[in-house]
Amino acid sequence: MTHSLAVAVLAAGKGTRMRSRLPKVLHPLGGRTLVENVLASLEQVQPDRQIAIIGYLADEVRAALAHVSGLEFVEQTEQLGTGHAVQQVIPALEGFEGNLLVLNGDVPLLRPETIAKMVKTHVENNNAATILTAQFEDPTGYGRVFCDDSYIVSEIIEHRDCTSEQRHNKRINSGIYCFNWQQLMTVLPHLKSDNDQNEYYLTDVVKDLSPVMALDVDDIEEISGINNRKQLSDAATILQRRIKDELMLSGITMINPDSITIDATVTVEPDVVIEPETHLRGHTTIAAGCHLGPGTLIENSTIGANTTVRYSVISDSTVEGAGRIGPYAHLRGQAIIGEDCRIGNFVEVKQSTIGNKTNAAHLAYLGNATLGDQVNIGAGTITANYDGFEKHSTVIKDNTKTGSNSVLVAPVTLGKNVTVGAGAVVTKDVDDNCLIVTRGERRVIKNWRPRFVNNKTAKK
Ligand code: UD1
Ligand code: CA
């Protein structure tokens, strides 16, 4: 027998305690939004349907999740409680047979293994509902789960609706559930809002379903919810520790890991060394043998094997391998650096493609440029790529060398084996094998002093 699985992610709330215009579920954590982290926890269960329940700034949430394939959206226009939220998926799930996994959009640290274990427990025991629970030292604010020694749940009571006696119960409801959809449908439409908050509580379905089982998580960090920015920062610390521990165990050396941050979306191959104050963000891939940092930011970039990057910033770019980048280099806007290149101090490369074994070792700007192999860019070479209205391209072919302080006024092409004299201003194309010098002829005037000095008698 197959067990179809649908998922409902509760993401309609504003998150008042975040004190933000941004919907709570769109706050970033480890390079993804909170709700994307929640969706990532579904990795091992492969649901047949995924439905996000959206409400507050629904269009923004929808746009932020548009890239998630197969994700459906239903709107909860008024937020009348978690039970009311799940009621909104009833039309979408008409005729559905199987289980419904309910996740809160603000519980971002769930491990895929935990969700898989919960679904497995639910299916194996043929439960009407399975609830992820934990025993908290301080359960204040959470709904309390009442169960017997075999974890069979009788009811869940919200903190504010508990008697002082009931508040001694430390077993809390994480807000993560797996329901048998057919059985849930016998009670979900009939919820009442006769509680302290006059809301439709999803937790009220529990007392009318059987059997309902509690499953304690091994690691309580996994079910911490985010209600304010302090909890967001605490979650970021937990996530960073997880990501870095995993990387170190996979063969990456980190020096002072507390000063390093790495997004969940980053891939690092073994035998990479990461030095202090280095930050890897977004869709970044680091190949084996790289040495990154100290003091480096790399985002949405691909760094090939055995590259060294020190005190530099690399965004949306590629270094193909064996590169030596920095100190103080800036690669951005789809810069593509070939194999075995050196991009040194105070060199900025923007939207340019650079061939193999090409060097720009000091003080240069290369924008909208295409460089061949074994080019040498002298200190102070600037591609003047912007005329005030549009950007123009510069092409520099193999083995060409630009002199110090040369300005290449785009659009312009330098052929192969060109030598550009120091201080040249190159405004027209230069053919292969040429030397181009644009200096004025040297004049030396002996014993020269400014005329006004000659006309004045020195006052002393
Ligand atoms: C809920 C549970 C509580 C549990 C806690 C765990 C209920 C009644 N209580 O309480 O037992 O211990 O989670 O964190 O379910 N949401 C909507 N629409 C609504 C209301 C909420 O989409 O109308 C979403 C929120 O955006 C949020 C999630 O549901 O992502 C949880 O809602 P919240 O109000 O934070 O529930 P809690 O009071 O924390
Ligand atoms: Ca909450």
Number of domains: 2
Distance between the termini: 108 Å
What's the helix count? 7
What's the story with the biggest beta sheet?
A: 16 strands, parallel
Low-pLDDT sequence parts: none
Any idea what the CATH architecture of the largest domain is?
Alpha-Beta Complex
Cofactors, ions and other ligands in the entry: uridine-diphosphate-N-acetylglucosamine, calcium ion
CATH hierarchy, class of the largest domain: Alpha Beta
Globular, elongated, flat, extended or rod-shaped: what is the shape?
Answer: elongated
The beta-strand count equals: 39
Helix content: 10-25%
Structural class from helices and strands?
alpha/beta
Question: What is the averaged pLDDT score?
Answer: 96
Compute the CA-based radius of gyration: 31 Å
Q: Can you identify the CATH superfamily of the largest domain?
A: Spore Coat Polysaccharide Biosynthesis Protein SpsA, Chain A
Give me the CATH fold name of the largest domain. Answer: Spore Coat Polysaccharide Biosynthesis Protein SpsA, Chain A
* Fraction of residues in β-strands: 25-35%
